[in-house]
Amino acid sequence: MTNAPAPARVRGGALLSPLALPWAVARLGFRRQFAYPQAALWGLITNTFFGVLRVAVLLALFGTRPQVAGYTAQDAITYTGLTQAFIMALSLFGWTDFMRTVHRGEVAADLLRPLNLLGFWAAQDAGRAAGQFVLRGLPMLLLFEALWGMVWPDGALGWLQTTLSVLLAWACGFLFRFLVNCAAFWSPDAAGFGRFGWAVLGLGCGFLMPLAFFPDWVQAWLSWTPFPAMLNTVVEVWVGVQRGAAAWEALGVQAAWALGMLAVTAFTLHRGLRRLEVAGG
Amino acid sequence: MARALRSAAHYLQLYGRLLGAQVRSQATYRGALVLDALGTLLITAAEFGALALVLPRFGGLGGWTLGEVCLLYGLAELSFVLMDLLFGGFDAPNLSAHVRAGTFSTFLLRPVPLVVQVFGSDFALRRVARIGLAAAIFAYGVTHTAHAWTLGDAALLAGCVLGLICFFGGLFVVGGTLTFWTVDSVEAMNVLTYGGRTLISYPMGIYGEWLRKTFTYLIPAAFLSYFPVLHLLGRPLPDGLPPAAAFLSPLVGPAVLALAFAFWRVGLRRYQGTGT
């Protein structure tokens, strides 16, 4: 029922392009992020403090070594800056917005929209992510550049590959978060699923440590999961641990995971909606 | 004296009842609780696991072995979890939610001391699972350091746990009090509380000079576990401090808590509610 969106008609029935509605939803999602600038500022201060601590730990680990697992100490600082910058944009600490609409029954109203439910949430989250990146991500990157100096993508090709990698990381991450939120269809208290999911995400995506530093068996295990595609690939492409053809290959893996996750998440949502019972009132 | 004891026993009983009610309600959906506890556990396990997995590749953290780091990390984590069970009600997100919703004002109307109600307002059963993990990390630290443990050392470490519980509790009380002024900037308190916990989990020698000095002389965090552990490992204290500075944990912690409660009373006098 939600898989065939009706064409959006406004103003005397003029047919809008199929992207007009998602675009409007995304723009609203973007603008909403700027409602509480003071909270964003405090968030930035918190992220900076933790960034300082994480840089100290990584530099202490490096000691006098010039390079470990393809990373220089400067790369490690850049890694920390990137992970701190993307916390909010990629919702690395979790996201329960969709879960809440299911628990409260608001999802019923969302189903009335002339837009596929997954597409509606994807558009909204894309706008939210872009807003958070501008508001929290960019200042964090500039701050890291000012405090320690960062490594930046190498040339036009590096920037292109990095940008694509960020977009794919958002897609994989969003689909994973949405999938976890779908647990709300089966459980009246899905917060536990969430906590579980976010903990796995934090370790698996390379938020806590660059995955290249882990023992080989852990890396081998993680390569069978979509988690590295949600952040670690971005870091490796950005700092140039993966460059040129190897970077294209890494992007291909990210794209494959995005498609796979899309299939699984769409299927799960479809099954979940068939179970949905909304209490009246 | 007898009267004071009787009223203390009465308040303790009230506190017990408040906790009991929360435990019963949280245990209703048993499956959800178990998953929630596992998830909470996994967050810490992942954070510590990432460090433990990476350390062998580098050989150490600023000259500290994994066992030695575990001693610090385990002390901080164990104390923080115990404190979180006790002082959860003062945590800024919890308290600011009460302030915003206006339920904090109803606390003031009830014929039960406010502090007892706040202490009993957020007991999260799921956190209990973390105690086991924290104890395991700490135990690994104790068994994997080249040190002949004595009864005196055990007393010193017990003093550290006590001091740290008071210290972290004090940070929670300060963070909670600040919500009387700024309802929306809860995230700022996280620097203080969760930031303090993270900072204290690693050997402070790895931080820059100004950061280490700030958290020694301005916020006395270094006295609570870093100095005692340095002493146990037979390392000199920084800045030429006398060895006696390693034994101040049971004094510094309660002092911070007392100051925090003094600040709490100031904030309370200023509290006017949000009009909800």
Write down the secondary-structure element order of chain A: EEHHEEHHHHHHHHH
- Which percent range describes the beta-strand content of chain B? under 5%
Extended strand count of chain A: 4
The CA-CA distance between the termini of chain B, in Å, is 41 Å
Distance between the termini of chain A: 23 Å
Could you describe the largest sheet of chain A, including whether it forms a barrel? 2 strands, antiparallel
Helix and strand content put the structural class of chain A at mainly alpha
- As an assembly, this protein is heterodimer
Poorly predicted residue ranges of chain B: none
Largest sheet of chain B: none
Which pair of chains has the greatest number of interface residues, and how are they split between the two chains?
A: A-B, 43 and 44 residues
- Molecular shape of chain A: globular
Taken in chain order, the helices and strands of chain B follow as HHHHHHHHHHHH
Give the overall form of chain B.
globular
What helical percentage do the residues of chain B reach? Answer: over 70%
Topology, element by element:
The complex is a heterodimer of chains A (281) and B (276).
Chain A: E1 9-10, E2 14-15, H1 20-32, H2 37-62, E3 67-68, E4 71-72, H3 73-89, H4 97-104, H5 107-111, H6 117-147, H7 155-181, H8 191-204, H9 216-222, H10 232-239, H11 245-275
Antiparallel strand pairs in A: 1-2, 3-4
Helix pairs in contact in A: 1-6, 2-3, 2-6, 3-6, 6-7, 7-10, 7-11
Chain B: H1 2-26, H2 30-58, H3 66-87, H4 92-101, H5 103-109, H6 114-119, H7 128-143, H8 151-178, H9 186-200, H10 209-218, H11 226-232, H12 249-270
Helix pairs in contact in B: 2-7, 3-7, 3-8, 4-8, 8-9, 8-12
Q: What would your notes on this structure say?
A:
The complex is a heterodimer of chains A (281) and B (276). Chain A contains 11 helices and 4 strands, in the order ββααββααααααααα. By secondary structure, chain A is mainly α. In chain A, β3 and β4 form a beta hairpin. Chain A is globular, with a radius of gyration of 20 Å. Chain B is mainly alpha-helical. In chain B, 41% of the residues are buried. Helix content of chain B is 71%, strand content 0%. Chain B is globular and about 55 Å long. The chains are: A mainly alpha (281), B mainly alpha (276). At the A-B interface, α2 and α8 of A face α2 and α9 of B.
